[in-house]
Amino acid sequence: MPRVLVDLLSYTGTKGGMETYARELYREIGSRDTEFEFVALASNEGYELDTSWFPGEVIRSGLSGENRFIWAYGELVKVTSWAKRTKADLIHSPATLGTMRRSVPSVVTMHDMLYWSHPELMSTGLYTQPVKWMEKRASKAATRVLTISDVSEGEITRFLGVDRSKLEVIPLAGTLLDGVDRSRASASDPFVLATGNRRPHKNWGGLIRALPLVDESVRPRLIITGSHGDDPLAPIVRETGMGDWVELRSWVSSEEMRELYSTATIMAMPSFCDGFSLPALEAMMVGLPVMLSDIDVYREVADDAALYFDPTSGASIANALTTAATDPKRMAELSVRGRQRSSVFSWDRTATATLDAFRTALRADQH
After folding, report:
1. Would you say the pTM of this structure is higher than 0.85?
2. Predicted pLDDT at 367
3. CB–CB of 361/144 below 8 Å?
4. What DSSP element (H or E) covers 294?
5. At 269, which CATH number?
């Protein structure tokens, strides 16, 4: 029975989409009877979290996933030594970075190439060059490289020089939030929901600055969730005078998100760039319409099931906000299209393709 060591050193409960990917992928894998045995190498922070979703033993690494230097050392060096210690036959690194040397076959899932394609939008400029170096080393050491969109596949080949023969696109999937009641969405009090971390490429400031361009008689409210501590968007709200129209929230519970999904008019994702869009996909799954930046990766996710706008144009964003607030027929059409489009993606398909990639990596090592 091949043993897979899963690198969860970056799993700390604060990393958003990449943690969702690891959790939902291995929850689905755990529901199956496969030939694999799994063991996870967890950060100190991740070890303290609920890891009942993982289908195997979870080992505390003694390393912090929040201390960037300790975490980087763990990724580059310690994962390989733990693979030897646990007698693993394969390493899976599901969070873009991985070991720089390997003693067994390895599979790394690289979600995006934003440090390469848009370094000016990365919030941690000091770490841009080290992260790029780590991504380069991880891709070279990997037996197989997985990614989540065609856009990311193109950028991995362009920036890292990875041969397409060892690269595979396996899209993410969404997790349906039960209990959402879209019949409660009110056209008389429209509001736009936005959710995500405050990294610059998300362009939340552009969304807020577009609000004053919408006629006050039809202007929707805006709720943005996902901040940690002091919200960097607060000064923009004050600068634009939109305090009565914008509500900034931190991370919300499933119960709060269920209420927001049930009552929002539309979800907005104004990013300049991205590797996928789990928030948009999960909104579409419950019938919540989405308005998205007109960028290739969002077209790849939502196809014709979104209201698109130019993220660099306040006027374009304002026009989309106006449409969302004043055209219930269009919103109803997008709701139907969104549900249909979201059915293309499933964790079942993601897990099946990932397990096949593990098998391919093990076979490749035998030749």
Report:
1. yes
2. 52
3. yes
4. none
5. 3.40.50.2000
